[in-house]
Write a structure and sequence with these properties.
alpha/beta; single chain; 301 residues; two-stranded antiparallel ribbon; ten-stranded parallel sheet
Length: 301
């Protein structure tokens, strides 16, 4: 089995919380990502948006483009308009060989609203998810036709957050809708990462390896504190620094035949969690778990 290790830039610079690394240059993120051992990165707000510029920047640091977030609004937007909006990013990702487009549904989300308590996130009934699923499937087919598969990201504060939401979404979408498996978000939402793998291994095409600080999450007041409050409190961290057992998670993915990217993604305060130091912790933990599970880690070449 083959795996590649990548990292997201959110440890260096958080687009939703500019006070967390807002002044940190992209150069620092890319240099330290490679120094920590990672073969690739996901995109963020500071990354170039054209093929020529982004390829040049990544090549200069000997890094691949693993993937990146797309803020989808299909819950409210017309399908045709959403297709028009994604075209530029699809072209960029296709040109640079990204594994997938990470689709996050942001219509009505509270994930980036500091004053919105976690319990005020949008909720959909099964009929609404069924309707949404048809539209999402058509959009995912469009992405696939243009050479970039869609990986859906369930997310705290969004309409698709919990195991129940994810179960219904997978039931009411076609095979073109793949899954980004985010260990931290599913656990934060009260789910079990191992159960998610068992249910949806055939849909998983991308992995975000995010650890949680269980004591921080347990202490949150969902009626008063927002997702961004949780981030600032330290809800997330890198593999090896939290409560999740990544040996078991990686082994289960291996048992199910998953091959592809494992992306360390942990939004936290860079002053409290120096990005290079924590990137190394995440890399070391995942590399050991991958080796134990029988994976071969492929580098930039």
């Amino acid at each position: 089995m083959k795996a590649k290790l990548g990292i997201a830039p959110i440890a260096w610079s958080n687009d939703d919380l500019p006070e967390l690394g807002g002044d940190t240059p992209l150069e620092a993120c890319l240099t330290e990502s490679r120094l920590a051992g990672f073969a690739g990165v996901e995109t963020g707000g500071k990354f170039p948006k054209t093929t020529t510029e982004l390829r040049s920047v990544l090549d200069a640091h000997d890094l691949l483009l693993a993937s990146g977030w797309y803020s989808g609004t299909l819950l409210e937007n017309e399908l045709a308009k959403e297709k028009d909006q994604v075209n530029e990013q699809l072209s960029l990702f296709r040109d640079l060989g990204a594994a997938c487009l990470v689709y996050g549904e942001t219509a009505g989300t509270i994930q980036n609203i500091r004053h919105a308590p976690l319990n005020t996130r949008p909720r959909l009934d099964e009929h609404q998810i069924q309707q949404y699923g048809r539209k999402l499937t058509a959009f995912a087919e469009f992405c696939a036709e243009r050479g970039v598969p869609l990986a859906f990201h369930e997310h705290m504060g969004a309409a698709i957050e919990t195991e129940r939401d994810l179960d219904l979404l997978m039931r009411h979408t076609g095979e073109a809708v793949h899954l980004l498996f985010d260990t931290g978000h599913i656990k934060f939402a009260g789910g079990d990462p191992l159960v998610t793998i068992e249910k949806f291994a055939d849909r998983i095409i991308h992995v975000h390896a995010k650890d949680i600080r269980a004591e921080v999450i347990a202490a949150l007041n969902l009626h008063k504190q927002s997702f961004l409050d949780a981030v600032l409190a330290g809800a997330f961290t890198v593999p090896g620094d939290g409560a999740l057992d990544f040996n078991s998670i990686v082994q289960r993915l291996g048992d199910k035949g998953y091959e592809g990217w494992f992306i360390v993604e942990a939004e936290q305060d860079p002053l409290k969690a120096p990005p290079l130091e924590y990137a190394k912790i995440g890399y070391t933990t995942l590399a050991a778990a991958l080796a134990k599970a029988g994976y071969q880690i492929h580098d930039r070449a």
